[in-house]
Write a structure and sequence with these properties.
single chain, about 100 residues, alpha+beta, four-stranded antiparallel beta sheet, 3 helices, globular
Length: about 100
């Protein structure tokens, strides 16, 4: 995640959208619901955890939630790369979970 932020820290518009997506994650962590246009559950995978996408403009932040653990932000991406980013996020989560088990 830090690499994604570092890559865009000099672009004020993109960096503002990253801050907006982080704000959405914070709001939802307090169990407040937002429309799917802002925060959605990614379905159709075999993961035992819930995978989410927070959206702000063209920015997407991907995270997962595991019971009794909390939410972990994995990475970020842009709207045009959503399909590839989601595949990458799911693989990253699988790799992480295999390393920690």
């Amino acid at each position: 995640m830090q690499i994604f932020i570092d890559e865009h820290q000099n672009d004020a518009l993109i960096f503002d959208k990253i801050a907006g997506a982080l704000s959405i994650i914070e709001i939802t962590s307090n169990l407040l619901r937002l429309p799917k246009t802002k925060f959605r559950l990614i379905e159709g995978h075999s993961m035992k955890c819930k995978v989410y996408e927070a959206k702000s403009g063209i920015i997407r932040l991907y995270l997962f939630h595991e019971e009794n653990t909390g939410r972990v932000i994995v990475t970020g991406g842009k709207k045009g790369n959503q399909k590839e980013d989601i595949k990458s996020v799911l693989q990253t989560i699988k790799d992480f979970k295999n390393e920690t088990e």
